[in-house]
């Protein structure tokens, strides 16, 4: 999972992170996620080809049903529908565990991610101009969200 995250960082289009900040310990990694939401897909060699998870956006009770999507696909596995499979699993999880809103933050230049989220019912709800710096350069982000049609 760490190597896939690092490959995403290397593209400059997946995260503001510039180094792998994933904890070495599985317990530490899952502590910041809905642990049951962590989804992986293995390739034919048994290696992790894609992974995703949902992370609570806040510890406040009123936001208990809101989670951020984290989704990464290994470079050699991109373009084969793995991201769509992971995202579909995360949406199913969110419906099962009564999460009413899923959020995703995407760089405007990351067209494949934008298309993936839009294809799964996410809509752009925000544009954040110069929200943070990456390697000394200000970057914008788009905020996408999917509201559950089942949880009122």
TrEMBL record:
Coiled-coil stretches: none
Cross-referenced PROSITE patterns: GNAT
Keywords associated with the record: Acyltransferase, Transferase
InterPro entries: Acyl_CoA_acyltransferase (IPR016181), GNAT_dom (IPR000182)
Listed EC numbers: 2.3.1.183
SUPFAM superfamilies attached to this UniProt entry: Acyl-CoA N-acyltransferases (Nat) (SSF55729)
Pfam families found in the cross-reference section: Acetyltransf_1
A molecular function GO annotation: phosphinothricin N-acetyltransferase activity
Domain N-acetyltransferase: start-end pairs: 1-145
Record's keyword annotation contains Acyltransferase: yes
Stretch forming the signal peptide: none
EC class (word): transferase
Highest rank taxon of the organism: Bacteria
Gene3D superfamilies registered for this protein in UniProt: 3.40.630.30
This protein's name: Phosphinothricin acetyltransferase
């Amino acid at each position: 999972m760490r190597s896939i995250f690092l490959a995403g960082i290397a593209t400059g289009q997946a995260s503001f992170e510039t180094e792998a900040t994933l904890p070495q310990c599985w317990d530490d990694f899952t502590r910041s996620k809905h642990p049951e939401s962590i989804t992986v897909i293995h390739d034919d060699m048994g290696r992790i080809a894609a992974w995703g998870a949902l992370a609570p956006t806040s510890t406040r009770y009123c936001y208990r049903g809101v989670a951020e999507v984290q989704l990464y696909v290994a470079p050699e596995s991109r373009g084969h529908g793995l991201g769509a499979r992971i995202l579909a699993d995360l949406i199913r999880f969110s419906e099962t565990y009564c999460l009413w809103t899923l959020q995703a933050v995407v760089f405007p230049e990351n067209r494949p991610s934008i298309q993936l989220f839009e294809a799964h019912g996410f809509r752009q709800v925000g544009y954040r101009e110069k929200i943070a710096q990456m390697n000394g350069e200000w970057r914008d982000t788009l905020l996408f969200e999917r509201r559950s049609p089942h949880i009122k």
